[in-house]
């Protein structure tokens, strides 16, 4: 919860600073977001590649564990696509691209902003931050009414990091392996699915 509020604070500060025209010109360069994306992808790759525990996680996996990220993908894309019919300003493909962020707001927002413009990028940022906040706040209720996998599915890509503590707390330590696996798969799918979906928009 604290990390999400910090992100929202920085986002709001960025808006305020840009409106006051006190930022240096180089910081307003549109190519800067692309460079930030490349750096972010490098960091994600280093994080995944350096985690020796992943080998152990893969060995412990049951084949059915693959169904968890698959359900997240189908549910997120299907739900976002359905919701687009109630928001006339956003097409089905654009809504599905936002849903394909799977909670990974930093990466999906930059990708979408670069491909479809800042407006949809902001929608992606806010939608995926809200997804993470809902997961953190509603964790005990999700488990109570929908079962132990509910937090992992709701958290999406964040299940391997920011929402992992609530997964362990409310779903049990045995769910940590599932959460990390699902989070890694979904994080790797974001830079693939978002551009693919938007290519049809």
Task: Describe the fold and architecture.
The chain has one domain. It is built from 10 helices and no strands. With 201 residues, the protein is mostly helical. The longest helix has 29 residues. Helices cover 75% and strands 0% of the residues. The radius of gyration is 17 Å and the shape is globular.
Primary descriptors:
75% helix
The total count of strands amounts to 0
Individual helix count: 10
Helix coverage percent = over 70%
The description of the largest β-sheet is: none
The value of Rg in angstroms is 17 Å
Taken in chain order, the helices and strands follow as HHHHHHHHHH
Return the structural class.
mainly alpha
For the record, the count of structural domains works out to 1
Mean pLDDT: 85
Unreliably modeled segments: none
Span between N and C termini? 34 Å
**Shape verdict:** globular
Strand content: under 5%
Short description:
The protein contains 10 helices and no strands. It is mainly alpha-helical and 201 residues long. It has one domain (32-198).
Give the arrangement of secondary structure elements.
Blueprint (H helix, E strand, L loop, with lengths): L1 H19 L10 H20 L2 H8 L6 H17 L8 H8 L5 H12 L1 H29 L3 H6 L8 H8 L4 H23 L3
